[in-house]
Amino acid sequence: xxxxxxxxxxxxxxxxxxxxxxxxxxxxxxxxxxxxxxxxxxxxxxxxxxxxxxxxxxxxxxxxxxxxxxxxxxxxxxxxxxxxxxxxxxxxxxxxxxxxxxxxxxxxxxxxxxxxxxxxxxxxxxxxxxxxxxxxxxxxxxxxxxxxxxxxxxxxxxxxxxxxxxxxxxxxxxxxxxxxxxxxxxxxxxxxxxxxxxxxxxxxxxxxxxxxxxxxxxxxxxxxxxxxxxxxxxxxxxxxxxxxxxxxxxxxxxxxxxxxxxxxxxxxxxxxxxxxxxxxxxxxxxxxxxxxxxxxxxxxxxxxxxxxxxxxxxxxxxxxxxxxxxx
Length: 327
Fold this sequence. Notes:
Blueprint: H1 2-32, E1 34-43, E2 48-58, H2 65-75, E3 81-82, E4 91-92, E5 95-96, E6 105-110, E7 129-135, E8 145-148, E9 156-166, E10 172-178, E11 183-188, E12 191-196, E13 202-204, E14 213-220, E15 238-241, H3 243-247, H4 282-289, H5 297-326
Parallel strand pairs: 1-7
Antiparallel strand pairs: 1-2, 3-4, 4-5, 6-7, 8-9, 9-10, 9-13, 11-12, 11-14, 14-15
Helix pairs in contact: 1-5
């Protein structure tokens, strides 16, 4: 009888130890895994290829651009980033570096700034936005348009770019230049209309298209061979027209670009910067997941815990069996 009580106490101690050890193991495993919310946009030769926000898990000291790109590549069936595991991106889907025979290829920016580091050497922070894009800044040239809507009550949008120029000693200087001769697509209720920016980087939207509400804006400029000469705007970029905008006087209007002869279309094409059907915008991703994505480590934790407790229970059963045989 005493032996049975002793065996029971041993079993209780084994199970208690197992629960404590398992809890500590799972907690330690969870503590090692961290996460950051990162937005990735990929602009290919002809169109936007990807645009989404996700919570990226990582267990190392820092999360690099390379780590984030590899995670997005693994999670999405819509993109294949070739060479990212080696730190040198040679292609995304079918857009391959050197397509135009020069120094054209894949570059990246973080929060609107182009780092001097390779993708493997730049550490991200929570909330960062990565843009991976195709271009040739040092050959054909590349501009990065920003939109001035301060005169939208007059129907005027102006596009400028902070460009880096080099003097004879190769010292860099940043200057603000207009983005001229660029196609701007304005969305309105019923379709789209195209305009070409003038030498000041401005377009004048016709009054009949300036209506209250949200209007999508896309931008495109390519070389004669079809190589991108600007970084497109976000696929969901829009300009909000308010009632006060409509009531303001349009007494002075600068010379504007003229509408192109391109027929109006009901829906902007992907090459004009519209969002492909298989891509969620940042706002869509955040509303669907409340800003969170399920970390892949959750299922691994559950499997680890189940296996651990199963082995402990099996060991306890062996102890009881051995005591019974001795009796």
